[in-house]
Design goal:
The complex is a heterodimer of chains A (392) and B (182). With 392 residues, chain A is of the alpha/beta class. Helix content of chain A is 39%, strand content 16%. With 182 residues, chain B is an alpha+beta fold. The longest helix of chain B is centred in the first third of the chain and has 14 residues. The chains are: A alpha/beta (392), B alpha+beta (182). At the A-B interface, helix 6, helix 7, helix 12 and strand 7 of A face strand 4, helix 4, helix 5 and helix 6 of B.
């Protein structure tokens, strides 16, 4: 079967229109969710998307030990729960006390005492590169707009609070959604690896790779955006990373650079449909055309990764989109044209398997080895990742 | 690498400038650097940036065809401004962790009170009341390695006098990048 870059746009039922109006989505999205989840689960998905996702931190074991930092943050009033999946990651619980911290101020106790000015743009940079909402993109009523602003504001407060502690400044932890930690973790980097991180800014996954590699081996961190690459360099420096080279490069040209790494991380640019919990603008600011554009870009990047990787090497592909077109379909297209590429299982029993039959398409059963995280099931952002290997 | 690289091994002149500046901070730093499996590289930007590059990175660095694309590698050690080498935050922490904590070099350090440590991380200038422990002799323009009460490295500052009173002026600390808006 040959895949085209075509997006599934179903006929829209009245029920889907009603839900779309109630929750502020484009109607075609609801109909797509019906196809993916069924009616009941769609409602669960839409409901959880009305709440922001829990913040998580990854403690930087290159600079400190996780227990010390966790205790220090607890002393400041944060309630931390260790992640069951990643040993040095903690979920920041939203209990009464942490709500109180947020209500009192948008910043840490240190900030309150000695604060400096930090503008909205800086906060966005801190937010591990999630694109911000654009007000002009809204096509919804004023009341909804206020709700969204309030939710955004709350999240900014959370980020500002955790992003202004002494421990944060000293590079002892990184604010990162739990789901975003999985690609680096399950790529299983080793201290003697040569890894290319293809779309690396602002550096959450790069610094995580370096942490697991114990600052050994070599990472080439690529990004082609001059502004974002500053955040990447800042995070690499702040976290005490020494094994990383940052290159201003268009990652789709990786195969033309003469690099042949044994591992590649490709956290591909995407429509971010999995981020609706934290960025409500995504309910309306993307269209099927955007998905098509992203599919092409993702395929081009993955194609470049496949050409670059050493025989026997592994590629971790991930996105924060839940759209099958940006995930399973991209993988399937690469599998179809590259018989030397296979999907490898990861040892993650938490995530759900990838789709093998969705939107009327039958896909390779190997895609069951891919993993999906959903807000209404895993209480994370929506996320997809899949580990590929080039046969020797 | 290309024939006219924007990134290369530091020149003899640059190495001398670095050596001269480090000598003012503490003797033996240069000798200690010589014992490590590292090389110093120069990259041309607004100033000449100096990087500490572990030798095991060099094989892959040679794969880079267009050195203009290289923005950062290894550890950012500092930059040469005019004829003077200025130590970066990370460079200072490297010296502190790799050599000072191993008793291989001596450095002038100031340990701050908790209050002082927090204030320093927000870029502020500190008064002696914020010092928990300071060297017996402090001279104007001394480069000082600044620590919190847990002896963790916070940044570097220098001593200056105002109205005949000593103050610790913040040169760079871990809040720097956030304040700059990166």
């Amino acid at each position: 079967m040959s895949f085209s870059f075509k997006v599934f746009v179903p006929d829209i039922s009245n029920k889907a229109r009603e839900l779309a109006e109630k929750f502020g989505y484009r109607p075609y999205m609801i109909e797509r969710y019906y196809s993916m989840f069924g009616v009941e689960e769609t409602l669960e998905f839409l409901t959880i998307n009305e709440s922001i996702s829990p913040l998580a931190i990854r403690i930087n074991s290159l600079k400190t030990d996780p227990q010390t930092v966790a205790n220090s943050l607890r002393m400041k009033g944060y309630q931390l729960t260790p992640s069951e999946q990643i040993p040095y990651a903690y979920i920041i619980e939203q209990d009464a006390k942490s709500e109180e911290i947020l209500q009192k101020s948008s910043t840490s106790p240190e900030y309150q005492q000695h604060g400096f000015e930090r503008d909205h743009d800086t906060l966005k940079e801190l937010e591990w590169g999630r694109p911000s909402y654009l007000e002009e993109d809204y096509l919804i009523d004023e009341e909804k707009r206020q709700d969204i602003k309030s939710s955004q504001h709350l999240r900014e407060k959370q980020i500002a609070t955790l992003g202004s502690t002494n421990e944060y400044l000293m590079g002892y932890y990184y604010i990162q959604d739990l789901a975003s930690m999985f690609p680096s973790y399950y790529l299983s980097p080793q201290p003697d690896d040569f890894i290319v991180d293809m779309c690396a800014a602002p550096g959450g996954k790069t610094t995580h790779l370096a942490q697991i590699m114990e600052n050994q081996g070599h990472i080439f961190a690529l990004d082609n955006n001059k502004k974002r690459i500053k955040s990447l360099i800042y995070n690499v420096r702040r976290c005490g990373i020494m094994n990383t080279t940052v290159l201003l490069l268009d990652a789709s040209s990786t195969h033309k650079q003469g690099f042949h790494p044994n591992k590649i991380l490709l956290d591909a640019p995407c429509t971010g449909e999995g981020l609706i919990r934290d960025d409500s603008a995504r309910k309306t600011n993307k269209t099927p055309t955007d998905i098509t554009g992203m599919m092409r870009k993702q395929h081009s990047l993955l194609h470049s990764a496949v050409k670059s990787i050493k025989p026997g090497g592994r590629i971790m592909y991930s996105t924060c989109s839940i759209a099958p077109e940006e995930n399973e379909f991209v993988i399937q297209k690469v599998l179809d044209s590259n018989p030397d590429i296979e999907i490898v299982s990861v040892n993650d029993e938490w995530g759900l398997p990838g789709y093998i039959n969705v939107f009327g398409m039958d896909l390779s059963e190997d895609l069951l080895k891919a993993r999906r995280l959903f807000p209404h099931i895993h209480n994370t952002i929506g996320f997809f990742y899949c580990l590929l290997q080039k046969r020797k | 690498m290309s024939s006219n690289p924007a990134f290369h091994l530091a020149t003899k002149k640059q190495l001398q400038q670095i050596k001269d500046s480090l000598q003012k901070i503490s003797s033996h730093i240069w000798e200690c650097l010589g014992t490590e499996s590292i090389n110093l590289y120069a990259r041309y930007d607004q100033y000449v940036e100096i990087f500490i590059v572990p030798t095991n990175l060099e094989r892959q660095l040679r794969l880079i065809r267009d050195t203009e694309t290289l923005q950062h590698t290894g550890l950012y050690f500092g930059f040469v401004k005019g004829t003077e080498f200025q130590l970066s935050l990370e460079g200072a922490e490297y010296l502190f962790t790799t050599f000072f904590k191993q008793n291989r070099i001596k450095l002038k350090t100031i340990t701050l009170t908790n209050e002082g440590a927090q204030s320093f991380l927000y870029g502020n200038t500190l008064k002696p009341t914020n010092f928990a422990q300071a060297p017996t002799s402090l001279n104007r323009k001394d480069v000082i390695f600044v620590l919190n009460p847990k002896s963790q490295f916070l940044g570097i500052g220098f001593i200056y006098t105002r109205d005949e009173r000593l103050e610790l002026r913040n040169l760079v600390d871990y809040g720097y990048y956030i304040r700059r808006g990166f």
